[in-house]
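Cross-check.
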Amino acid sequence: MSIIATDQVNSAQQSTETKATYRYVREADGIYRQQTSRYLHERPTINGKRTWRSLETKNLKLAKEEFRRRRSAEDRGEDPYTEKREPPAESEKAEVPSVVGDALRRYVQDNCPDRNRKKRPERTLAAEKANIEILLPFWDDVAPDDITIALCDKYHDKRVEMPTHRRFHRADRTVRKTIDLFKL
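Predicted model, tokenized:
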């Protein structure tokens, strides 16, 4: 093999090796897709430094719209990376639940949405509502700031002692699944 052919083979091997290590892949002008999360990002210069900013979507069309909105804001002399929120009027303020029981009842009232605020399938919805009924007696009067690991352990101990309708039921797994509702 000649020296030129060897160099071409080596450069081809290097390009395939480095291609797999890139974290971002260009999708459109100024828009890149992060390989791990698949979210789209832009590459702005902020305070004189190049950085990555998420466009907070995986959809290329929506990312292009957000990208154009941010560039237009920069052209107007505004900073598109700061959230400008006007304080809500007194009548529009959302009521903050004072105890966990209120939050659980509100969750059921909203039909137990998933993490993406989407509707759950009927079977899952029924299971979520059953879990809430189990959680309410213990957590009804607990303030969110009072939740500690010790309180979760106390709930776990109480739930393990509760009778179950299945003969070989794994109470620990059930308790973990109901406590997982707090992670939403």
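The chain has six helices and six strands. The helical segments are 3-19, 60-75, 100-109, 122-139, 149-161, 171-179. Passed to J.P. for a second look.
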